[in-house]
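lol forgot to send this yesterday, sorry. C-alpha cells for the thing we talked abt
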C-alpha cells in the first residue's frame, strides 16, 4: 500500500511500532525511543493543518497577552 498523506503515514508507523511492542519483538524502551520522533512529527503536522482555521486563531488569541494602555 502506498500512502501519500504524511499524517496517515506517521500514524501507520505508530501502529506498526505498537504491534512490534505488543508482540514482544521490541522492548518498551525501544518502542518509546522509536515513537518519540514520530509523535512529534504528528503534532507538527496536526498543528500545520489547523494553522489557517478558526479554531487555531481562537486558540492563539486566548494565549496572546492583551496590551493595556
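and heres what i got for the seq, position by position
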Amino acid at each position: 500500500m502506498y500512502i501519500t498523506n504524511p499524517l496517515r503515514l506517521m500514524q501507520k508507523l505508530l501502529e506498526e511500532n505498537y504491534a512490534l511492542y505488543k508482540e514482544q519483538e521490541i522492548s518498551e524502551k525501544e518502542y518509546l525511543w522509536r515513537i518519540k520522533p514520530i509523535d512529534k512529527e504528528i503534532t507538527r503536522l496536526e498543528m500545520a493543518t489547523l494553522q489557517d482555521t478558526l479554531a487555531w486563531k481562537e486558540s492563539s488569541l486566548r494565549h496572546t497577552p492583551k496590551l493595556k494602555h
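Residues 28-50 form the longest helix (23 residues). anyway ping me if u want another try
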